[in-house]
């Protein structure tokens, strides 16, 4: 290989790096310059106001009084967000709903047939039960593990190190995690086991197992991967919430002579309830959308398929746009109650 | 604070700008030159001139080293005709092409390896019918059975280009010579040989069908190859076109014939484990135990030649070679299962048609073949230009008059089956489900 062979690719790479630097640099610059500009303007206005108050008439007493044009300004700030929301969310959602009522190549209206199909095919019912398993187990386990860990390492020695250890998997992409764990579960018929789990198993005297082939346990093994990633997220949020519990409450409870058990259930848990709900809701939504782990590790074979992966397969691999869109809408409907719960919860919190 | 950082920001900005400008200057140098080729070299391309300065985009699933060879193969065409070919290869070709086309962003030419997909685009009116020149060129260079796959509703859409032969069984010539085994020429001989090998304490077969999101396809190739042998080419066509159901007894018979090899723990899976290990063994590594004499035979297409570890000699006198998967009844001809990509166009500008015609020519096939690792059913392809022995064998089989060629069936079926439930069904089948159960399931998923 000569350098010339690489030269075009290298210059492409260089362009990429430059574009990256220019865009990120520009954004940073913008973030620095724009607020500064406004800050200085405000400063100037304040100075001017303070000057004018000394000899001019008094300013209006109420600050709530709106200046004309402020609503317009608000709208101007809202428009980009609304526009992006419209392009990226509202229009595709409506289009997906329309597609879900059409046939495979979107040429004919078929009514609710695609929705009927979801509940008729054995394969798809399997997909739904798997997803249900994911949604029940992942938030429960991930939050449980995260909470347990947060409580246990709270104010322990090496707390920061311990916490970063469990937080590290968060930094790994789902695909990366899938590949790592695929190796953990890997199987070799004879010779040395390359999978950690099978190595342990055979060292203890067992026959090598094909863990990922045997339903329903394989779904559980995939869930472990998601828990591994999400537990760190739960731990960080919950640990912060625990630290935010006012120390006088904790001290008062101590003076009353609570056992650690009572402390956890009567003091810690009620105090961190809002954070706990945020964590559970966030993980639940992430779990409903799980795709990468299943696609990398089993590709939905061996009865491990989930809704998001099947949706992609139907729409983009089998060119069954109708059925794929129906699954997408179904997934959307599943997420709605969780989102409503979350919003109501936030509102209640604000009222308190 | 904000004021103090400003000079530094200016410096960063200036540096990036300077970098950008200098990079542009660097690449500017390599842009010109090489346009004045000698006319003698260009004589072969006279028919394609007249559209100097135009650009044709090509989109395909061929990437990396193979893509570089492809681009190299038409570089002279570009120099002589002045037509620039903008090539893009994608690993998500099958999923992305419909997105591009439906989004009004279609490439000028696509290399479509699935006649099923080709038909879908043709039916939707997205493809442009091939020009008369392309058609004449294709008819002169390719067998009719190939062109039929690119003909929808009487209209011809594009010539094949690269091809591969799937009916191969890889083996170790050394081990065969050492043990005195002979390459089988009939199915019965092959089964007898399997027993002999199993008797010698070696697993006769290796198999692996793991292939990322396409897991299962190697098993569907097995079934198709045996369908051609067990039921014959006519029944094969009916099966692919769904004029007989997927769970027809003839299909079941072929699947069971494969099952006698792939689902027999005495026969598989050398070096990897039991029958189920087939599902988790990648097709790339599945054949490698042949080099360690842990298994004796591996049925896989000609392109597997590129998968052997570096330093492996492929050839009749080498570490590994392939024999033709024998027919059940040799009297009925020589069934060959294969695949290939079709060069179809989404635009009918004159330069696009010229590139399409060129790709159908013997010139294009020979230029590409000379660069190595490439096979085509193009009958102008001079076998002397094909370097490695397995490609030679593949070209010989493709040009053989007694060969009964059929295209990979899963590429002809609707994607929901051919790239979906058929693959998945085969994974379930290896993983323990019965033939009847799996075939019923696939039949149920055929789009109505």
Automatic annotation (TrEMBL), chain A:
It is found in: Cell membrane. Keywords: Cell membrane, Membrane, Transmembrane, Transmembrane helix, Transport. It holds the Pfam family BPD_transp_1. One of its GO terms (cellular component) is plasma membrane. The chain crosses the membrane at residues 12-34, 72-94, 132-153, 165-187, 220-242, 263-288, 325-343. The keyword Transferase does not apply. Signal peptide: none annotated. Residues 128-344 form the ABC transmembrane type-1 domain. GO terms for biological process: transmembrane transport. It is a multi-pass membrane protein. Belongs to the binding-protein-dependent transport system permease family. PANTHER family: ABC TRANSPORTER PERMEASE PROTEIN, OSMOPROTECTIVE COMPOUNDS UPTAKE PERMEASE PROTEIN GGTC. This is Alpha-glucoside transport system permease protein. It comes from Asanoa hainanensis.
UniProtKB/TrEMBL annotation, chain B:
Keywords: Signal, Transport. Residues 1-25 form the signal peptide. It comes from the Bacteria. InterPro entries: Bact_solute-bd_prot1. Coiled coil: none annotated. Belongs to the bacterial solute-binding protein 1 family. This is Alpha-glucoside transport system substrate-binding protein. It comes from Asanoa hainanensis.
